[in-house]
Design brief:
heterodimer, A: four-stranded mixed β-sheet, B: mainly alpha, two-stranded antiparallel sheet, globular
Chain lengths: ~70, ~350
Amino acid sequence: MKELDTSGFSCPEPVIMTKKALKESPEGLTVIVDNRASKENVTRYATALGYKVKTEEGSGNWHLMISK
Amino acid sequence: MKHEEKVKLAIAGGLIGLAAVVLTAFGNPGNMGFCIACFLRDTAGAMHLHNAAIVQYVRPEIIGIVLGSFALGVIRKDFKPRGGSSPVLRFVIGFIVMLGALVFLGCPLRMVLRLAGGDLNALVALFGFIAGIGVGCIFLSNGFSLGKAEKESSTEGVAFPALTVLLFILFMAVPSLFLFSETGPGSMHAPVALALLAGLAVGAAAERTRLCMAGGIRDIFLIKDFTLISGFIAIFAVTLIGNLITGSFHLGFTGQPVSHPMHLWNFLGMFAVGLGSVMLGGCPLRQLILAGEGSSDSAMAVFGMIAGAAFAHNFSLASTAEKGPGVNGKVALVAAIVILLAIATIVTMKKRREG
């Protein structure tokens, strides 16, 4: 699955990056976020579009598996 | 989850509204329970950075907000020292945001409080704020970014909260170091302990919920999400009710506390604040919260705002109540908006070229 690393970017940028990436791969992707605000915003955005989001906590970041 | 977040934001917004009503009842200027721009300006004045005698006071609310965010950030492991995302640009944008706020006479938070006090000038300003955010969102969707922040040492992250502690200690122990207004808005303030406590509560609540005045409107434009805006609405609703109970609600354009009815300049002032806030990733309140969470980029924006406040008063750029901005303020604000648009355009074009 395609991976998008948004580490170091703060909101709303990770959401915009996710929006663009989902346009390119509408079947889903994994988004790496390194702050809680982005984790919640990206999750909320993907959920609103009808995607399922599975979250795995890494060391200091989160992997958000976004799929249909 | 979506509903739960909205409820949390509504509670946080309600708490801020309540704190604002209480602080005003206990001495803060009218419709100024909280105003990040005004309070940073007052604090700059107290530190001898400008010589406007009516707006000088070390506002404990600011110190409380930063420390409330820092404390909860450490507890919730949200405290992450980072920086290096265009610090000088952030300083400049913070400077301009402050200039816009001081032409309007309030940050986005005070704009909502003024609205809830019946000050219709704030409604004109809200349109300017929305327009500024709209323009900012166009840049964002076209690739505007101040760049990636890197991890930094905990010393760097703690530096800003530590500075606010030092300021508070000096304020308590050696008040003779500072200038304090004897008349005007700077002389009106709630008791120190109450102001500090209210700041701590608001700082913690805003850290927890990421409440942001600009973010609420931005998310509607950008991703049609109405979550963040609920905090904004809750602040308005609770303050409105509080003002009605305490008899502080007066509908109209004139005779409003620390306000002026120059529509064009209220609009343009908040246009600059809206656009600048989107470029910074959050309104002045959010910058304080992020600085508390260890972002040295946001700390730079706050320093820019403090410098902006000092310049605004030393060079007569800030508006005066009732009269509005003078020639200096009008010229400076228009120039500042041009600079803001130039920064946004250049950064966006460069990003697009990089792909």
